[in-house]
Amino acid sequence: MPRLSVWLVRSALCYLAIGVLAGAVLLINRGVFLGPWVGRLQPIHVEFLLMGWTVQLALGVAFWILPRFRTGRERGREVFAWVAYGLLNLGVLAAAIGQAIGLPPAVPLLGHSAEALAAASFALHAWPRVKVFGSDH
Amino acid sequence: MPLLTRWFIKAAMVYLVAALLCGVAMQGPLADRLPVVRALWPTYLHLLVVGWLTQLIFGVAFWLFPKHPSAPPRGSDRLGWICFALLNLGLLLRAVAEPLQGLGRPSAPLLVASAVAQLLAGWAFVINTWPRVRER
Question: How many domains does chain B have?
Answer without folding.
Answer: 1
